[in-house]
Amino acid sequence: MDWDGKLYETSHSFVSAYGVDVLDMLGGISGKTVLDAGCGTGTLAAEAQRRGARVLGVDADENMLAIARENHPGLHFERCRLEEFVRKDAFDAAYSNAVLHWIADQKKVVENVYASLKKGGLFACEFGGAGNAQTVLSALEEGLKCEGLPLKSPFHYRGEEFARVLEDAGFNVKYMKLFPRMTDMKEGADGLDNWILQFCRDTLPEDKGSLARILEYVRGAVRGELFFGGIWHVDYMRLRFLAQKYPCGLPSAAEYGPRRAISLADGMQNTAADEEKYK
Fold this sequence. Notes:
8 strands
């Protein structure tokens, strides 16, 4: 999907704002070499640099990178698909915010991040979890159906089973949580429309009349649930994790023990203790 970088910057800056929490999971990064995997317009990369890190931002979208380079001329950015990017043992840490749900081959991305980290390196990440924006997407599917069109969802949302993908790549999963976050759009009457136009554009018709009817249908279908306080909201679900490349290489099967499944219930029960581990 080709991104509208200007719309992203002006209407969806909340994405980067929430990403600061992901960066926080890495702890102190001053003097460290850090990979921003899916840097977008570079806002989080600039924050990582402010914290003293040497940052490389990687993204596949040239429109996003053009804004990143314009806004942050002192940072290094590279255009590359994350499924293809590898810098063996080059980074002390990596983070990724709101990116993996756009990528079908998430396994390859995880393997590449693992290969690019030095031993002991941390990987902090958040992306769309199972059920993300379900209320909006269900209404959009019905609106498209009224126009004789299918929903072609670009999203690859995951649940807590994603821990297995990380562990299969060699990571030790230190923390994982699937959680809801009702997210406000801060734009009054246009907030929901702009979200759909930005993030679902590949499934929308070019005909302006048809598009207007679809958007009107969605607004009517979800207003009772998602419009309050004078602004639109989207019912986000997020999957957040912190994983580590083993400091001394992969342990033996006996040392590693059985692969564990991190359940949502366990994650909720152990949140406070787990968060202390990465602070």
